[in-house]
Design brief:
four-stranded mixed β-sheet; alpha/beta; single chain; binds 4'-deoxy-4'-aminopyridoxal-5'-phosphate; 433 residues; globular
């Protein structure tokens, strides 16, 4: 990889540059300085003019001056910010009991039952966690224990979490270009027909170095890679190679799960895959930290035989109440169908715009997770900041940050899609071609 082609660390995408703190003015300058003083170098903020958001509803966010911003970025509040059903479930359960997970609680078991009923039959055990990182960390431990192997294959700009194990399999977090010896990095599926061959080559490379394959770890929408969704099913050959080599498929549903892609509730389902381990996180709790690992009992046993696993807050009564309310809202408000309908509409509108504006390239994605190629990373950053000035929030993705990441809450409407597209159009008209 040449210097200019290097991966941009995921945290650098659309990030505020602390070196520019002195250029900010007024109360914003004071707030940013305070945060930098308290958080030090670990402080990451979005936008050249960071935002202070104080309340939210549906797809709208409000800053401290009462200004409304259209949220076309956030998938954590997946059923809409502060959804009253979810807020009520959390408050009610919080007022009744919330305690660690070593007592019986029907609410947690009912929620576990519901989630398992939505998976292939053989995936009949669930271990709750609190975050996507914890889910993937546990999944990697399970895969290593079950297969007795250590090799993991991931895509070139993947992000799978912030723990030591998950950072090692997150090329978008590497500051150097090299992966650790137990990791092989394959290209993002910009050429989906070549994906299986890349995975097969990575497996062969492991074998040459005397290492066996433990798992292929895949985010089914390739979010940080720059959003690659099509054609549905293109991952099947690669997964066959993995299984033939004795490895497991870990389906990371942190981005693509919970109806995001519009055509299926789970990303792996959209591709017709049968994963060995499914990891869940972010959208599961609409803002409450909750995650899970779903797998076959034998895979879970393999860890329990070697070491214990306990997670104090995971699957607690409030987490379960919130998770159940999120599922209720997705079903009752038909958010899967909304993601498909509004997502398709938005994709078409963006494609029409891209046909007229040379700054934009391909529009990819599924449901309400879209990526738009931009001529250069610096142009993408300019557009994202200019949209923020027009009170529309999106983000960046891709190895070098040259993809606009559009991923609103699932209740996004056609009118909101129109607002986004016309704001982007205005922004593009201000750009030099
Ligand atoms: N997997 C994927 C695909 C993600 O995008 C993320 C977070 N962006 C994670 C895992 C980690 O989730 P968390 O930050 O909640 O630990």
């Amino acid at each position: 990889m040449s210097g200019s082609e290097r991966n941009k660390p995921v945290l650098a995408l659309n990030a505020f540059d602390p070196g520019r703190a002195a250029t900010l003015e007024g109360e914003l300058a004071e707030r940013v300085r305070r945060r930098l003083r308290l958080y030090g170098s670990s402080s990451v903020l979005f936008y050249e003019q960071p935002l202070e958001l104080v309340r939210a509803q549906g797809c709208w966010l409000y800053d401290s001056a009462g200004i409304a911003y259209l949220d076309a970025y956030n998938n954590v509040p997946s059923v809409g910010h502060c959804h009253p059903r979810v807020v009520e479930a959390a408050a009610r359960q919080m007022g009744q009991i919330n305690v660690h997970s070593r007592y019986l609680h029907d609410g947690a078991l009912d929620y576990a039952d519901r989630l398992l009923a939505m998976q292939p039959r053989e995936l009949s055990n669930i271990a709750f966690t609190c975050t996507g990182s914890e889910s993937n960390d546990l999944a990697l431990r399970l895969a290593a224990g079950f297969t007795g192997a250590s090799g993991v294959i991931v895509t070139e700009a993947a992000y799978h979490g912030n723990t030591a194990l998950t950072t090692a399999v997150s090329p978008s977090s590497y500051l150097e270009d090299s992966a650790p010896p137990h990791v092989r990095v394959v290209p993002a599926p910009a050429r989906p027909e070549q994906f299986a061959a890349h995975v097969a080559a990575a497996i062969a490379d492991f074998e040459r170095s005397g290492r066996r394959l433990s798992a292929l770890l895949i985010d089914g929408i390739f979010s940080s890679d720059g959003v690659f969704a099509d054609p549905p099913g293109f991952l099947r050959d690669a997964v066959e190679c993995v299984h033939r080599a004795g490895g497991l498929l870990i389906a990371d549903e942190v981005q693509c799960g919970f109806a995001r892609t519009g055509s299926a509730f789970w990303g792996y389902e959209r591709h017709g895959l049968r994963p060995d381990i499914v990891t869940l996180g972010k959208p599961m709790g609409n803002g409450y930290p909750i995650g899970a690992v779903i797998t076959r009992p034998k895979i879970l046993d393999s860890l329990r035989e070697r070491e214990g696993y306990f997670n104090t807050f995971a699957g607690n009564p409030v987490a379960a109440a919130v998770g159940g309310a999120v599922l209720d809202v997705i079903m009752e408000e038909e958010l899967l169908a909304n993601a498909a309908q509004v997502g398709n509409y938005l994709k078409q509108q963006l494609q029409q715009l891209a046909a007229q504006r040379p700054t934009l390239g391909a529009v990819r994605g599924a449901g309400l997770f879209l990526g738009v190629d931009v001529r250069a990373p610096a142009v993408a950053a300019t557009l994202i900041n200019a949209l923020r000035e027009r009170r529309v929030l999106i983000g960046a993705a891709g190895r070098t940050g040259d993809v606009l990441k559009i991923r609103p809450p699932l209740c996004f409407s056609r009118q909101q899609a129109d607002l986004l597209v016309s704001a982007l159009d205005d922004t593009l008209q201000m750009q030099p071609h």
